[in-house]
Design brief:
The protein has about 160 residues and is an alpha+beta fold. It has one domain. It contains 5 helices and 5 strands. The strands form 2 sheets. The chain has a 3-stranded mixed sheet with strand order 1-3-4. A hairpin with a 2-residue loop joins strand 3 and strand 4. Helix 1 packs across helix 2. The longest helix is centred in the first third of the chain and has 21 residues. It starts with a helix and ends with a helix.
Length: about 160
């Protein structure tokens, strides 16, 4: 999927607004890549917003890039937690604070080109087989994800979308 130039600008603006509202910083307690400087952090945040927007568009759902949901509500729809990585072959990373009732969707790529790699219920991703040996999280390879086309037809689709 592809974003327009206007979408890209909106994502950067939304990232700055969200960061300013919450006073988030590149070296925040929940972050692992604390080596980013502020402009790199804004760019990464904008990519994350773009990945959520791509998933919302895929399912034809409304999405407000300026709305911060934190971990209180799903990123998209009723229960979709979007995970982003710029690496095309990257893995979906689930954290201890992710809601086990959500569906995690992995988006890869870089602006303006994104790919929806697949999905997995968060509860299934939080199994010992995916547990990272050096971090308090779970890493799920793309081969273990379901194709995005299957989500809407699955029993999870009714509650997540």
């Amino acid at each position: 999927m592809q974003l327009t130039h206007e979408d890209e600008v909106t994502c950067v603006k939304a990232a700055l607004v969200r960061i300013e509202r919450t006073d988030e910083r590149p070296d925040g307690a929940k972050r692992y890549d604390t080596q980013l400087n502020f402009p790199e952090y804004v760019a990464q945040y904008a990519e994350t917003i773009a990945s959520e927007w791509v998933v919302a568009r895929y399912f034809n759902l409304n999405y407000d890039p300026f709305e911060s949901k934190y971990k209180d509500r799903a990123d998209v729809g009723n229960g979709i937690e979007v995970k982003y990585t710029p690496y095309l072959a990257g893995q979906l990373i689930i954290h201890e604070y992710d809601r086990p009732t959500d569906i995690a969707v992995l988006v890869t790529g870089k602006s303006p080109h994104y790919f929806i790699a697949g999905w997995i219920p968060v509860a299934m991703a939080q199994k010992p087989r995916y547990r990272h040996s050096k971090q308090p999280n779970w890493w799920v390879t793309q081969v273990n994800l379901q194709p995005i086309e299957n989500l809407i037809r699955s029993t999870y689709g009714n509650t997540a979308i």
